[in-house]
Structures are given as structure tokens and as C-alpha cells.
Amino acid sequence: MSTPTDAPAPALPAPSLARSLALQRRVLHALLMREVITRFGRRNLGALWLFVEPMLFTLGVAALWAAAGLHERSPVPVAAFAITGYSSVLLWRNCATRSAMAIEANQGLLYHRNVRVIDVLLTRILLEVGGATASFVLLGLFFTWFGWIAPPEDLLEVAAGWFLLAWFGAALALVIGAGTAFSDVVEKLWHPAAYLLFPISGAAFLVDWLPPNLREVVMLLPMVHGVEILREGYFGSVARLHYDAGFLAVSCLVLTYVGLAMTRHAGRKVEVR
Question: In the chain, where are the structural domains located?
């Protein structure tokens, strides 16, 4: 005769969607705070360096271009050209660079039941996108306030271009971040690749300035289309821009699918360890 202690334990009810979302929010918030403190500390400007650093870089480039007199040789506003170009590079490049080896650096946290590989990568992506966005907005307001550049001609198009670039950067970060869980070679290859991509990413030129044969090659890079959309929203009336928003969106979708699949496999690999 069976006793009450022999009865199987009742199954725990599955957590509700609201509870799961609340838990995910707490995990991401804790990881974000930890990442900010670890990277920037509590002294000096602290977390403000998250957007002050890209601001200083972009300001320096704009100052050099203005000192070289480029603003007198082209109808394209040099300050707006520099802000849209170098801010976009910092957006997608920093997302991928900071995500490289992020899993290994946070290996100890993955022993917690509620922390997953995707949480670690999302934390770094959110930090970089937030910092680059704050820098881009503040620089635009700063230059506009002092009359150095005109306000954007189409603010919605600027926002759309920035969103697509952020999406591309996030998807690329998933691929690079998850890839480093399988081999350190991914990180070693990514750094030179990032430097090689920089001069052909559209940051330092307009596609219209290139010869037709070279233009077709450059437009195979998804980020070039995002920069062109961003610049059309800023000063499209003084320049001819070339882009295919559909190609950029499809590229982001493919990269996102690949990145999420790799992240899932990376999570299983980490659990096996």
C-alpha cells in the first residue's frame, strides 16, 4: 500500500509571460549595472564616458576636416558629414568589438540559472547602442545650437537610418560574440576585418563620389546603405544619395537569424562545460 510520501511531487506551474518578462528585465538591469561599473568605475565621469568618448572622437574628426578647409570645397556640410559618418561607424563597430569574448569574460555569471548567453551579449549591445545614440543626438544638438550645421531635413529618415544601422550592429555583434565561444580565432580575425571595413563603410565618402564599377562593389556592404539613408535625412537636398533599404533590412534579418542560432549553440556549449 502506497504512502503519501510515495506520491510524485506536483509539477510546478509554468511562469506567466509577465513574470518571465519581469525576470528578464531584472537580469538585464543587473548585468548592465555590473558592466557599467566594471568598465567605467565610480570615479571621474563614470558612466558618462559611455557617450563622451565617441563624442570626443567625432568632434576631433570634424575639427580636422574643418581645419583642412573641406567645408569650402564642397556643398556637403562637413560637420554633418563627419557626425553621420563616424557616429555610424562607432555604432556598428563597437557593438561587435565589445561583444567579442564577452561570453568568456562573463563565464562565472552563466552558472546562475537565470543568466543566459543571450543576456550577456544583449547587455553589451544595449550599452554600445545607447552610448552611440546619446553621442549622436548630443552632437547634433550641440552643432545645431551653435549654428554650425542646419537641423536635419527629415528627422524621421534620420531615425530610420540610425535604427537600421543599430539593428545591423546588434546582429553583427551576436554573430561575432557567439562565434568567439567556439574559437578565439573569430576575435583575432574580427579586429583586422573591422579596420579594413572602416574605409569602405561609407563613413568617409558618399557613394555618388565613386566610379560606377566601384560603386557597385561598395554597395554590397549593408552598412553603406544605412549611412546613405542617414545622410539623406540630414542633408539630402545638397547631395545625391544611393541606397536600398530593402537590401539592408534583408541583410539584417539574415544576420539576426544566424546570430541567434549561433548564440543558442554557444549557450549549449557553455552548459556542457
Answer: 47-272
